[in-house]
Design brief:
By secondary structure, the protein is α/β, with parallel strands linked by helices. It contains 13 helices and twelve strands.
Length: 401
């Protein structure tokens, strides 16, 4: 009953920029197949917000008892991996229909997602019909007033064909007590106190040969686990989307994995004679939002023609696709802009811990989904983990505490 009362109370609370939290619907499929995508979503919501893992099942119908068993097993998996989230699954005739079902049915009142997280579609060049479904899902999220994020990692997230078995090892370790030093300064009776411990779960993954996975594969699966990062989080602010492109990387810097990272903000110059002014404006904005940063870098010449090597790389990407010459000519300026962005991202951010960039959007009904996916592919190819973000234009940052 208390949970129902709290849900009603939350629903009656007015939305305000000051109490914004990312409430994430992550289309993970079976979370056990994409653990790194789940871990990243968990970093955004970590114990303070809502996380729902959505799973769309297509193909042959699934018996209701099998679906119920799947839900129970996955919910147990989330608990074993210390992920405070929920799992929803539905069987649909297509990914697009199932994703829309997740978007419209997930949550309860205000305890509902306000942000969609999906992995990058690596097979876009081989699956034209899948591109339409993928892009339509993004637009559906916007129509439901959700923000949209796409996360890409070099080797993708789907390890269903690699992980043959997984076991969870639970160990007890000494629990740290933040007040122990303060108490040590006070004169107290020396009484032997029991050592406080806490349980830590560790996943052990094995391949089809029943041997532990290779270290590189394991590192990819656990890339967003507890290992501390010490480099840069690079934010590429391309458009004003309500501030989400700044807020999410700031949230990452509050997590222990990224606490030692420095924030760099890149903005594109409209005119070369306005570089200093744009740099000062962004620095002022960050100061007002009380976001610590190490540098603001203004990049000129985004409209300059892309390098011939980049053009050749793009042509190789779209070879064999359904993108016609007429479409390419119509979108020539946008294509050049994305090629230039790809060049600049590689120049400045290829060694960063994570790259965050405003998500460019295609014109609905005008831009070929395959061409749109080619733009995203070229820009994010061979970079560190890259998060593309597009807010729903509602402000998520405030000047006031």
């Amino acid at each position: 009953m208390d949970a129902v009362k709290q849900a009603h109370k939350l629903t009656e609370t007015q939305d305000h920029v000051k109490n914004y939290r990312p409430k994430v619907l992550a289309l993970t499929g079976n979370p056990g197949h994409r653990p790194a995508l789940v871990d990243f979503a968990n970093l955004l919501t970590k114990k303070t917000s809502l996380l729902i893992c959505g799973h769309v099942l297509t193909g042959e119908s699934v018996p209701s008892n099998a679906l119920s068993a799947l839900k129970e097993n996955v919910q147990a998996w989330l608990k074993d991996h210390a992920v405070r989230g929920f799992y929803i699954a539905n069987h649909s005739s297509s990914f697009e229909e199932g994703a829309k079902n997740c978007l419209t049915m997930a949550g309860l009142g205000k305890l509902s997602p306000n942000l969609l997280l999906v992995g990058f579609k690596n097979d876009w060049s081989k699956n034209p019909s899948g591109n339409n479904e993928y892009v339509n899902t993004l637009f559906c999220a916007f129509e439901q007033r959700l923000s949209v994020t796409i996360l890409r990692a070099k080797d993708g997230f789907d390890y269903s064909g690699v992980i043959a078995a997984e076991t969870t090892v639970v160990k007890e370790v000494a629990a740290t007590d933040d007040h122990s030093d303060d108490e040590a300064e006070k004169p107290t009776l020396k009484v032997a106190a029991p050592v406080k411990t806490r349980k830590v779960s560790t996943a052990v993954y094995k391949g089809a040969d029943n041997l532990p996975l290779e270290s590189k594969t394991l590192a990819n699966i656990e890339m967003f686990k507890d290992g501390k990062k010490t480099g840069y989080i690079d934010v590429w602010w391309l458009y004003d989307d309500g501030g989400l492109t700044l807020l999410l990387p700031y949230i990452l810097t509050t997590r222990k994995q990224y606490k030692s990272c420095k924030l760099r903000v890149f903005i594109l110059a409209n005119r070369n004679d306005q570089l200093d002014m744009q740099q000062r404006q962004m620095a002022t904005l960050l100061a007002k939002f009380r976001i610590d940063y190490s540098d603001v870098i203004v990049i000129p010449d985004v409209t300059k023609k892309a390098d011939p090597a980049t053009k050749a790389e793009f042509q190789a990407l779209i070879a064999g696709s359904d993108i016609g010459e007429e479409e390419l000519e119509k979108e020539r300026e946008k294509t050049n802009r994305h090629m230039r962005l790809a060049e600049m991202l590689r120049t400045y951010s290829s060694e960063s811990e994570i790259v965050v960039m405003t998500l460019p959007l295609p014109r609905k009904g005008h831009t070929n989904p395959a061409l749109y996916m080619a733009w995203l592919d070229l820009m994010t190819k061979n970079l560190p983990p890259t998060l593309l973000i597009r807010g729903n234009q509602e402000p998520v940052l405030t000047f006031y505490s």
